[in-house]
Amino acid sequence: MRFWGIEPKVSFFAVPYALLAFYLNSTFGIWIPRLSRSGAALVTVGVAMWLLCYLQVLGAYSKGKLLTTGCYFRVRHPIYSIWGLMIIPGFSLVVGGFMLALPFVYWLAVVGFISEEERALEERLSDEWRSYVKRTGRFLPRI
Fold first, then answer.
1. What is the 3 state secondary structure string of 92-143?
2. Which among 38, 41, 20 has a CA at the least distance from the CA of 97?
3. What is the pLDDT of residue 31?
4. Contact 41/90 with Cβ under 8 angstroms?
5. Measuring CA to CA, which residue among 103, 99, 105 is closest to residue 23?
6. Distance CA 106, CA 104 (A)
7. Long-range Cβ contact pairs of 61-65 (< 8 A, separation 24 or more)
8. pTM
9. pLDDT tens track for 63-116
10. Is 84 within 8 Å of 110 (Cβ atoms)?
């Protein structure tokens, strides 16, 4: 599994849908932003959180180690969570119209491909990964 994980495969579905949504919005004249301030706030906070997680995992990945601290302490895939719960929904709220379905397309793709990434991590990290899986949530912290 490469550093980018399943993101290229997820993008294969999400990006064409986003382009289609832009096209449909322009064709049907649906450009009225709804909740644009809330959306912009979600995107801003999400990008800051994504950058923090990205920098943390980059260091661990370059050393070939499993990151289990920081953003990864309670959630195995915080970057996918941040994109799917903050950045993409925020962007969708700013644009509005057909773009509002983009988070659903994103999550369908992530859920469809995440097992592939987790299998690769288990093969590479064995018992350390299995122990980590038992104590962390996939996309949200366990309560």
1. HHHHCHHHHHHHHHHHHHHHHHHHHHHHHHHHHHHHHHHHHHHHCECCCCCC
2. 20
3. 64
4. yes
5. 99
6. 5
7. 61/3
8. 0.89
9. 888 999 999 999 999 999 999 999 999 999 988 889 999 999 999 999 999 999
10. yes
